[in-house]
Design goal:
- The complex is a heterodimer.
- Chain A is an alpha+beta fold.
- Chain A has one domain.
- Chain A has a three-stranded antiparallel β-sheet with strand order 2-1-3, covered by helices on one side.
- In chain B, helix 2 packs parallel to helix 6.
- Chain B has a five-stranded antiparallel β-sheet, with helices on both faces.
- By secondary structure, chain B is of the alpha+beta class.
- Helix content of chain B is about 55%, strand content about 10%.
- The longest helix of chain B has about 45 residues.
- Chain B has two domains: about 45 residues; about 170 residues, no CATH class.
- Chain B is built from eight helices and five strands; from the N terminus they run H-H-H-E-H-H-E-E-E-H-H-E-H.
- Chain B is elongated and about 110 Å long.
- The chains are: A alpha+beta, B alpha+beta.
- Chains A and B meet through strand 1, strand 2, strand 3 and strand 4 of A and helix 2, strand 4, helix 6 and helix 7 of B.
- Strand 4 of chain A pairs antiparallel with strand 4 of chain B, so a sheet runs across the interface.
């Protein structure tokens, strides 16, 4: 998510391919270095309710996740 | 003597040449980048549909992330209700020693039994939040309708701090929803807490809570009993 733009595709690839994975990891780190938060929309097991999972490292991204959403970090308004 | 000076000047000029070329090229590139940036900014200013398209994309993204009920709530009412998950303690109810003892994120979902949804969950939850776009998050007690507090939180762009642009409405709601459902305690700690009524008129919130009850009653069916609460 980018202020003034909305959703912008930063990178995409198949994490099972090493070349793609390297690119995804590099982009993941760059976004976090710029101060963004990363979240993965997930479904709570059992109830089926949707929720989000904040991830701080690439390896924390669930294998089943099809996208990671980066958004500016929260600050007191 | 003159010849020696001439040779020295030639050598110096030859040595300086690559540096001069590099400097000129660097300045030209920088100027070109500045021009293209300004052109892009002007193009964006001329494009009146940019924000509308951004909002449209944001709505699609929100729809794909939240629960169907929450999406319908946002579409029909303009806000999303999220049930509080810190259980009886409330958003600011933990004492410091207990907070340390219980750890950071509100986890241990399994110990809390099946997840609550909709009006039934609201009646059971000790407190809930209303998420409005670009307005504070409002905490309230579903059973009584009592307003607890406002949590002022923003998602400012750090890289372009001079920029006055902000997230589209639906992206702002999604960012709050993700932060709240992923790590409620962290979001609450990052925000500035105020008493109800500082930014959002309490009468408006009470009206929204009534609209929400009516909306849920209609979704359950016209013959459903009226939900308790003010």
């Amino acid at each position: 998510m980018m202020p003034g733009h909305g959703e912008v595709l930063i990178a995409e690839g198949d994490p099972r391919l090493s070349e793609d994975e390297e690119r995804l990891i590099a982009e993941f780190r760059r976004q976090l270095d710029e101060g963004m938060w990363a979240a993965v929309p997930t479904t709570r097991p059992g109830s089926g309710r949707r929720q989000a999972l904040l991830v701080k490292a690439y390896q924390d991204v669930p294998a089943s996740a099809d996208r990671v959403i980066f958004f500016p970090r929260a600050a007191g308004g | 003597m003159v010849l020696a000076l001439l040779v020295l000047a030639l050598v110096a000029a030859a040595l300086m040449l690559p540096i001069a070329v590099r400097t000129v090229r660097f300045r030209t590139d920088r100027r070109r980048a500045r021009w293209s940036r300004r052109r892009a900014e002007r193009r964006e200013l001329r494009d009146p549909g940019r924000e509308r398209r951004a909002e449209q994309r944001a709505r699609e993204l929100l729809r794909s992330c939240v629960n169907d009920e929450e999406w319908a709530m946002y579409r029909d009412l303009g806000f999303i209700r999220v049930l509080g998950r810190l259980q009886a303690e409330g958003p600011h109810g933990l004492s410091a020693p207990r907070r340390r003892f219980r750890g950071g994120a509100p986890s241990s979902e399994a110990s809390r039994g099946p997840a609550r949804t909709g009006a039934e969950g609201e009646r059971q939850a000790g407190y809930a939040y209303l998420i409005y776009p670009h307005k504070p998050i409002v905490a309230y007690v579903p059973r009584t309708g009592r307003l607890l507090s406002e949590y002022c939180v923003e998602f400012p762009e750090l890289a372009g701090a001079i920029s006055h642009s902000r997230l589209p409405d639906s992206d702002d709601v999604l960012a709050k929803w993700m932060a709240l459902t992923a790590d409620e305690r962290r979001l609450i700690n990052e925000s500035n807490m105020h008493l109800p009524g500082r930014q959002i008129d309490p009468a408006r919130v009470r009206r929204d809570l009534w609209r929400l009850r009516e909306w849920e009653r209609l979704r359950r069916g016209p013959d459903a009993p009226v939900a308790p609460g003010r």
